[in-house]
Amino acid sequence: MKKIILLLTAAYCFSVISYAQEPPFISDSLDGYIQQGMKDWSIPGLAVAVVKDGKVVLMKGYGVRDIKTKEPVDENTLFMIASNSKLFTATALAQLEYDKKLSLDDKITKYFPHYRAYDTTTTQLATIRDMLSHHLGTKTFQGDFTFWNSKLSRQEIMNRMRFLKPSQNFRQSYGYCNSCFLTAGEIIPVVSGKPWEVYVYDSIVEPLGMDKTHTLGHGMEQMPDAAKPYTNTFSKDLVEVPYDQIDNLAPAGSIVSCVKDISHWLLMQLDSGRYEGKQILPWAVLQRTRDMNTILNSRRNSLTSTHFIGYCLGLFVTDYGGSQVYWHTGGADGFVTNTCFVPEENLGITILTNNDNQNFFEALRYQILDAYMKKPYINWSKLRLKDFLQERNETLAKIDSLKARVKGGKPALHLNAYTGTYENELYGTITITANGNDLTVKFNSHNNLTAKLQYMDNDEWLITYSHPAFGIFPLKFKTEQNKVVSVDVKMNEFIELDPYTFTRNK
User: What whole-number distance in Å separates Cα of residue 363 and Cα of residue 373?
Assistant: First the structure.
């Protein structure tokens, strides 16, 4: 794995740091730990903030937001916080419930009479709380390939949720669902008269003085101080990827922010809804978002010594070091982030990064938690790095072996036999055309997503997406009586776990 030299030499920037009475790891070892972690995990830029006992005790940027210009990360550098947006949505809905504008137990069909889930029972019973708790019975990320970065409107996404066939039981199972959060969030304009992005800004972002924060990500490339997104999931080197266009899923993940602004959000969470002495949100609203609605695990984890994990409303909850810990992560193409707060310790943490293929952002969170909770030292980064590197090397070796099979061979059928329009009930259509000796796939529900198909051997093709984060995989057409009838298309599991079957139109 190639090392990025600039990470070894880039100076870090800081705005606030007060080491007085902080744990030794924070005062003596944190800088070196982060710099080594960024090197080990190939992270261009990282920003971190820690709040403790009502104060910001650490706010710092490391590395660069752009590996070409080498502009440094600081406390104002903007990252897509992705699913850390979910707690903003849940909080807004809890506030509207507090104001008696709705109940979280209201049926979705009360606000959207034409809404349909896959089955009638779910359609009739699904509530706002169900949507905020991922109770639809679908698999984690199901539908995201169709919805993420697509040109579908919010209403069109909701309409297509009727094609999300559940693999689990409604309300008895957990499947992380971005379109569910969209659906819940779209109730906000119905009862408030304001679009989700305006209501969240007016009721939460602005009162907290989060003046760098954007509730929508459109035009992020033009935002001052925006970090560039990178990945190396399918390549040896870091590759810059386009900024995600997910404002159509805004309530699930569109917020763009920085650690300075998120520190305000954390301080408010830890002071019963107050910020700088002013009550921003009622304490009852915050309590509502922290009520566990889904049991994810109730068995002891030998590594972390936790005994349960649950999902509240836009928040995970667990026990750690004898305290109740709330947290959420966020992943967008090129960014992974987290926020975390521990009310009993009066401690809050946020970490924002611009490489989506790493787990250091979570290792660092545990490292900071351990320091403040006085737990025995474990180097979480080193602990997780070995398995990560092994898996990464296996992925890259597999890609190399697939590419080596592209030798200019010819498929069993004439190239034109594979061309045409293919359809998937959920996604819509793709168009496959001939391009020299290869094929080109155009994904018609996306604005700019294509893929190249190169023939390998044994009736298998290599699919390489135009968007680097979507991946490189083998692909096989299904044929009957020398005619192509369908094709299964796989994508990065970061986007969706299962492949899509597209049937060729006759």
Answer: 15
**Beta carbons of 403 and 461 less than 8 angstroms apart:** no
| pLDDT tens-digit series, residues 118-166 | 999 999 999 999 999 999 999 999 999 999 999 999 999 999 999 999 9
Taking alpha carbons only, the member of 400, 391, 340, 413 closest to residue 370 is 340
Scanning 149-258, the segments in alpha helix (DSSP H) are 154-160, 178-185, 187-192, 196-200, 250-253
Q: What is the CATH topology of the domain spanning 5-95+185-392?
A: Beta-lactamase (3.40.710)
On whether the CB atoms of residues 51 and 266 are closer than 8 A, the answer is yes
Structural class in CATH, domain 415-504: mainly beta
Domain positions in the chain: 5-95+185-392, 415-504
pLDDT of residue 15 exceeding 70, the answer is no
Task: Kindly tell me the burial class for residue 299, based on how many C-beta atoms sit within 10 Å of its own C-beta (0-12, 13-18, 19 or more).
Answer: exposed
Work out the widest C-alpha separation in the chain, in whole angstroms. Answer: 76
Task: List, for residues 151-209, the tens digit of each pLDDT value.
Answer: 999 999 999 999 999 999 999 889 999 999 999 999 999 999 999 999 999 999 999 99
DSSP notation for 17-53? E--TT--HIIIIIHHHHHHHHHHHHT-SEEEEEEEET
Determine the pLDDT at residue 11.
35
Continuous segment of H or E residues that includes residue 331: strand 323-332
**4 CB neighbour count, 10 Å cutoff:** 21
Q: Which region, left, alpha or beta, applies to residue 480 given φ > 0 means left and ψ of -120 to 50 means alpha?
A: beta
* Whether 229 contacts 356, CB under 8 Å: yes
Kindly state the tokens that stand for 70: 């080498």
Give the whole-angstrom CA distance, residue 231 versus residue 238.
5
CB 50 within 8 A of CB 57: yes
Task: Supply 138's token pair.
Answer: 């679908």
Statement: residue 259 has pLDDT above 80: yes
- Give residue 412's pLDDT: 92
**74 Cβ contact partners less than 8 Å away, ≥ 6 residues apart:** 13, 14, 15, 47, 61, 225
Task: Indicate the SS3 state at residue 51.
Answer: strand
Residue 19 predicted with pLDDT over 90: no
Helix residue ranges, H only, 212-258: 250-253
| pTM assigned to the model | 0.94
d(CA 315, CA 292): 9
Locate 188 and state its tokens.
Answer: 């906000």
C-beta of residue 455 within 8 angstroms of C-beta of residue 410: yes
